[in-house]
Specification:
The protein is an alpha+beta fold. It contains nine helices and 27 strands.
Length: about 525
């Protein structure tokens, strides 16, 4: 959750954080510290990291936020990318690291989640549940983020369909879990130490190239009783619940962390129950059912900000430097923009809303935006022949692979494509016969022409890449003519010859193959390779 900063100010700030609900610092100290100034409202002494404030911290900055709203902090706009990265453009992948020997012995829950003996409040299964559930049950909480993109001009407030949009976590965002118990986590890790652990995790998970990490984020979860980057300390800079950043931020406490695996986006996620309601306990749900509300609210906040501002501050922020989660943090419960429970395949979890430029408001749900796919040869040809107004009607499903190429079904036919044959239409009785004969996997292979009218205006035909054709008339129905028999029929004049149209497919006969026509037959003899024609 960063504030938009000039490079001259960046050494005073790190990443993007969520400041909590119930504050460690008094309102007076918070308002006097980094949280209230327009340049540090998000960073709070954490470099370019975007912080999630505690609830008290949020209350302390409410007057500043009100002033900004009155002045009009406006929509989120694109910041032009950092190191070429603005947003997560593919399906987001989240790797969770429970850092430190303090987490204790791992075991597995009945749902397959990793549980840890040093996790007194059950944070580990909760984090896994929400991340594994994102992108399931057709949830549209993630849809709000998909309106954002990269590849647009700096300062843009909207995205054309063709731009690379934030990806949807179809089937779940959780990509891996690691309890790194090789050593104890530091009592108060620096930003650089957290970043280094994220780089180590990338190696552990085999994500060892810039391409592999392009859509990854690593959540470094510290054990109970620790204070990563000052979390839980009675200072203005410790008045946060979490923050996210990337390893190359030189303004982090301790400086940047080198990576042989490309840029590494990561979240500093402290042990949130240590601050109770200050970081969201019971924010949505009462009593024991809401004890871990803050876990999904805070992690969801950081996840949403990471995928829309992967390398802070290169993604989407407003004129005050707030990210999509910041603008909607601790704003209340229910409605279209407040925190509320969302149903995932892995359970029901409270989540906060995030900012939607489309709605000019906080939204808990929005239809998923998917970037327009490059037009395929089939799509180009379909548009060229008239699209839905053509003889094919409307598409049914999407394109799919067939032997030698691809195909698309329509309400009134199909189109097949290969680089060698091009894109061609087959429909009606000819399509039915083609499929009966095995379609692309059969003897005819792929069509090499569209369905075309015959010169006598009686019939129709398609030619196919194996040297075959299917002809149709109302009187004869559809039949295939292949190989040497088709060659001979064509030499005689095809449908305009004395034989007329085929009345059967090619079939076996003693010593060869035969096709019947309206006025005769053509027989091919295997022993000689010759054909003979009989009229009747």
């Amino acid at each position: 959750m960063p504030v938009r900063l000039s490079r001259s100010l960046s050494t005073a700030l790190v990443g993007c954080a969520l400041v909590g609900v119930g504050a460690l610092a008094s309102p007076a100290s918070a308002s006097a510290g980094d949280l209230s100034g327009p340049d540090k409202a998000h960073h709070g002494g954490h470099g370019h990291a975007v912080i999630f404030p505690t609830r008290t911290g949020q209350q302390a900055r409410v007057h500043t936020a009100a002033a900004q709203a009155a002045a009009g902090s406006g929509p989120l706009t694109y910041d032009g990318a950092v190191d070429g990265i603005g947003v997560t453009t593919g399906p987001p992948k989240v790797y969770v690291v429970f850092w430190g020997a303090q987490w204790g012995t791992p075991s597995t829950t009945s749902t397959g989640a990793v549980a840890l003996s040093g996790d007194p409040r059950g944070v580990a299964p909760r984090i896994q549940g929400v991340l594994k559930g994102l992108g399931t049950n057709n949830e549209t909480w993630s849809g709000v983020m998909t309106q954002y993109c990269q590849g647009v001009a700096t300062g843009s407030a909207s995205c054309p369909p063709s731009s690379p949009h934030v990806g949807y976590p179809q089937g779940g965002a959780l990509a891996g879990v690691w309890a790194d118990r090789s050593r104890a986590a530091p009592p108060q890790a620096t930003g650089a130490q957290l970043a280094a652990e994220a780089v180590t995790a990338a190696g552990h998970f085999g994500q060892t190239s810039p391409a592999a990490n392009r859509n990854n984020q690593y959540v470094i979860v510290s054990p109970a009783g620790t204070h990563p980057d000052g979390f839980g300390t009675n200072t203005a800079s410790g008045n946060f619940c979490a923050w996210h950043d990337w390893n190359g931020d030189t303004a982090m406490s301790g400086g940047a962390a080198s990576s042989p695996y490309g840029d590494i986006a990561f979240t500093n996620l402290p042990y949130l129950p240590d601050l109770g309601s200050t970081c969201g306990a019971n924010y949505v749900n009462p009593a024991s059912s809401g004890a871990l509300d803050g876990v999904s609210i805070v992690e969801g906040h950081e996840y949403a900000e990471t995928i829309t501002d992967q390398n802070p501050l290169g993604g989407w922020t407003d004129s005050a430097g707030y990210e999509n989660g910041d603008k909607c943090a601790w704003v209340g419960v229910g409605g279209t923009g407040g925190a509320q429970n969302i149903a995932l395949a892995t359970g029901t979890f409270p989540m906060q809303a995030t900012w939607s430029n489309d709605a000019n408001a906080c939204q808990i749900s929005r239809p998923v935006t998917r970037a327009a796919a490059p037009a395929t040869p089939i799509a180009v040809r379909y548009a060229a022949i008239g699209g839905a107004a053509s003889v094919l009607g409307t598409p049914v499903g999407g394109e799919y692979a067939v032997t030698g190429g691809t195909a698309q079904n329509y309400t009134q036919g199909r189109m097949y494509y290969s680089p060698a044959t091009g894109a061609h239409v087959v429909r009606g009785a000819i399509l039915a016969r083609y499929l009966t004969l095995g379609g692309p996997a059969g003897a005819l292979r792929l069509p090499s022409t569209d369905q075309t009218g015959t010169p006598d205006r009686i019939g129709r035909y398609n030619q196919f890449s194996a040297g075959a054709a299917i002809y149709w008339t109302p009187a004869t129905s559809a039949h295939a003519v292949l190989g040497a028999i088709r060659v001979r029929w064509s030499q005689l004049g095809a449908e305009r010859s004395p034989l007329g149209y085929p009345t059967t497919d090619e079939y076996s006969t003693t010593g060869g193959r035969r096709s019947d026509f309206q006025h005769g037959t053509i027989t091919w003899t295997a022993a000689t390779g010759a054909t003979s024609t009989t009229y009747h």
